[in-house]
From TrEMBL:
The keyword Secreted does not apply. Residues 37-106 form the HIT domain. It comes from Tistlia consotensis USBA 355. GO terms for molecular function: hydrolase activity. This is Diadenosine tetraphosphate (Ap4A) hydrolase. Keywords: Hydrolase.
Length: 146
């Protein structure tokens, strides 16, 4: 397991840190309109995908794939979007977002299309529990950040 790397404050402001995967911290975007995960590889000073060494890149790809499959199993989206933009947050992080034909932004990208709708406490805990259960066996979900 990799040591923790400090997560950029902007990510912590917009997300809930829900746990550690084998290579990344798993965050849940505080946006109730979409099941939206963010993976932050636990390597210091990484900005772009190609900053990772080949083996780390492979490990993160595996986590992205398992997170995508978990969102499909849990929520049956029509599409799962994967993006690593980093235009506003320089730390390498990867968005994995379940999309639906009737979601508030469809078919446009999710960024800046609607007013942010934060999770209510009960819905947040339910979403986190679903994701933890689904990823437990496939990704070796290790801990929950309290």
């Amino acid at each position: 397991m990799q040591p923790d790397v400090e997560i950029h404050p902007a990510l912590l402001k917009d997300c809930h840190d829900i746990g550690r995967l084998r290579m990344s911290r798993l965050l849940l975007m505080d946006e109730a309109a979409w099941p939206w995960l963010v993976l932050v590889p636990m390597r210091p000073n990484k900005v772009d995908w190609d900053d990772l060494d080949p083996m780390d890149s492979y490990r993160v790809c595996d986590e992205i794939r398992e997170c995508s499959l978990a969102l499909k199993r849990l929520y049956s989206p029509i599409k799962v979007n994967v993006a690593a933009l980093g235009n506003q947050v320089p730390q390498l992080h990867i968005h994995v977002i379940a999309r639906f034909e009737k979601d508030p932004a469809w078919p446009r990208p999710v960024w800046g299309v609607t007013e942010k709708r934060r999770y209510e406490p009960h819905a947040l805990q339910q979403r986190i529990a679903e994701i933890e259960r689904e990823l437990h066996s496939s990704l070796g979900f290790a801990d929950r950040k309290g």
